[in-house]
Amino acid sequence: DAVAFDQLAGYVTPNAAQALAPGLAYYQARLPSGGDDTAALNADYAAALAAGIPLVIPAEFYQVAGHLNWSGITAPPYLIQVPVYGAGYSVRRGLLRIFGTAGNLTYEYWSGTVLFCTAASGASLTINGCDTLAPIVKGIALVGPGSGTATGLVMGPTPNAPADIDVMIANFYVGASLTGVESGELRFKIYGCATPLTLGVATNENNFY
Q1: What is the spatial distance between Cα 53 and Cα 71, in angstroms, rounded to a whole number?
Q2: What pLDDT score was predicted for residue 74?
Q3: Which of 9, 21, 130, 207 is exposed most, by the fewest CB atoms within 10 A?
Q4: Which of 24, 66, 64, 72 is nearest to 46 (CA)?
């Protein structure tokens, strides 16, 4: 359901809270089901997109056995992109140094909005933009299975200018793969991935932090 900003202040990262005016409506994602949350998270994003309001994902551990797609609507005349905000993330110091380390998947070491992704191949999260409408995803940790060939985050090939992404990506074979991403503000914390980052064609003039 759409709820008021002040009802969700505890779930929003400080940067997100500062960027959005009090009273703005949000669509709040459902809490974890105890099983695979892929379909629910995709449905929550679709509902937020249809309403044209941001999606807020509360702090919890979510199981993602499939593939998330948080892309905008790119068919003219409807060009729509909505932000996705998690509650931030943290992980115990010293963890996530090597791809596939068993401790990478220990729940007790994590806090915040954490998506544990178990698919061994493909993209766990895909974001396609709407050319001039910026994809915004902040305050979420994607944690991979530590085996197989999966990629944590795929952006493109639809233009993603200018993307604003602040996520942690850990324990994937490939952390992030970008194609067609230009003039973005990309705050990636990538740990324990065999290949942290790949850049495809038309990926230019981005600021990486």
Answers
A1: 14
A2: 64
A3: 21
A4: 72
Taking residues 171-192, what's their average pLDDT? 88
Cα dihedral sign for 190, 194, 199, 201?
A: negative
- In the three-class reduction of DSSP (H, G, I as helix; E, B as strand; rest coil), residue 131 is classed as strand
Task: Please tell me what DSSP assigns to residue 29.
Answer: P
The DSSP H or E segment spanning 5 is none
How does DSSP assign 136-199, residue by residue?
EEEEEEEE--SSSS-EEEEE-SS-BTT-EEEEEEES-SEEEEESS-BS-EEEEEEES-SEEEEE
**DSSP output for 50-91:** HHTS-EE--SEEEEE-S-EE---B-STT--B---EE---EEE
Q: Which amino acid is at 67?
A: H
- Tokens 């702090």 belong to 59
